[in-house]
Write a structure and sequence with these properties.
Blueprint (H helix, E strand, L loop, with lengths): L1 E14 L3 E2 L2 E2 H11 L5 E5 L2 E2 L7 E2 L10 E8 L1 H14 L4 E12 L6
Antiparallel strand pairs: 1-7, 1-8, 2-3, 4-7, 5-6
Length: 113
């Protein structure tokens, strides 16, 4: 079955060492998204980047950074993302959140009951 609908992509840019209540922040975001029943979440670990402080973080053999960039991406319907935004307001101390309107095309197996 093919489903096509408008949605919103929420992208969170944070550092690998950012924490929330004793656990990695990216993991806390994924757990919160799951708790809220969102469609899914994906975490990407960057190999190089810089943020607001302009300090470059890179994964190179001779200069390994302990704080590589991390991106958490979630796509769902606009109204379903609101509770997660409230959580991010509290949990993200330094980072960037980007919201983009997108059109999704989802493919699902036909489920017979």
């Amino acid at each position: 079955m093919r489903i096509q609908a408008p949605a919103r992509r929420l992208t969170v840019y944070i550092g690998e060492t950012d924490r929330w209540q004793g656990q990695p922040l990216y993991h806390a975001i994924v757990l919160k998204a799951r708790e809220l029943g969102l469609a899914g979440a994906t975490v990407y670990r960057g190999i190089e980047g810089y943020g607001a402080n302009s300090r470059v973080h890179a994964a190179r053999v001779l200069e390994l950074s302990a704080d590589l960039p991390v991106i958490v991406e979630i796509v769902d319907h606009v109204d379903r993302l609101q509770p997660l935004l409230a959580f991010l307001d509290e949990a993200v101390q330094e980072g960037l959140v980007v919201l983009e309107d997108v059109e999704i095309v989802a493919y699902r197996k036909n489920r017979q009951r």
